[in-house]
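Quick bug: NADPH:quinone reductase-like Zn-dependent oxidoreductase output formatted oddly.
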Amino acid sequence: MKAAVIRAFGDPDQIQLEEVATPVPGPGEVLVKVLAVGVNRLDHYVRLGQIAPVLPFPHILGSDAVGEVAALGAGASRFAVGERVIAMPGYPTDPAQWDTRPVTAAASYAIPGIHMPGTYAQYIVVPEHWLLRDTTGLPAEQMAALPVSLLIAIRAVQVVGEVKAGDRVLVHAGASSTGMMSIQVARALGARVVTTVQNAASAELALRLGAELAIDTGTQDFVEPVRAWSGGQGVDVAIDNLGGDVLSRTLEAVKPMGIVVAMGFMAGTDVRFDIRRFFFAQQQLRGTLVGDIEDFAAWLDAIRQGRVRAQIDSVLPLSQAAEAHRRIAANEARGSIVLQPWAS
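Here's what came back:
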């Protein structure tokens, strides 16, 4: 089969399309013919060596995939050949830990494209336990852009942030993949949303997705506009995928007893703030990773109804994976980039 692999860390040109052995499903596993692959910023960091500094090369990148069942391993019976399925972008490799929740707390939790061969390939093997039947009827390209970003957003907004109808929510980087998903999840839950962006095009996109106000942080600080939008009190919940100094300022935009959900570090990994203001305001700072397979299943109706949808920047053949990474690295993508492993 064909796969996009790297043989060393480095720039996007390290990604090459090669012929590799097609995997064989073992007991309880499914061979999936990959129809579409979502490209995530995580893939960019893996390629640079910033996530897993040691990898067995050649290595196949990628965590998101949608496809159809091509073959069943011994004992696999949940799916039939030809069914459309969504592969979970992470799961415990030890079956004894499959019931751990959140799934990321399992000691054997592993992510395709990091801890095992990834999804930039024509075929992948996945335990049937970690496949979800795709009942949406949407194009594979639409669905492939969802798993990582949507599972992050569901857990950050609904589970960890406890967002409910009527809440005021701040979502940072509203035109990023996780930002766009977080806006839509919050709106679907009945919350009101304010977001930060870096330019007018991003503001237009965020507003189209349901944000009431988009603040261009290239021209102004966000704290006072957020407080004014929230009636002077601050927001109930902030979804912070940036970290660094942004998270420090975010605490000032959140009301007493409010929640800040930290789930990224694009603005830096070091955060400093006055602990006195934090505990006198009785705020909560919570960390989060991705959601569970049940979370994705629960949102399939919302996806089918269009209340949550992927924003697609472009669809490229797998042979252009390097170009996809160049666009991601340069922040040129307005939405998700999707790769097609079977396109010529």
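Actually, after a second look the formatting is fine. The two ends are 14 Å apart (CA to CA). Closing.
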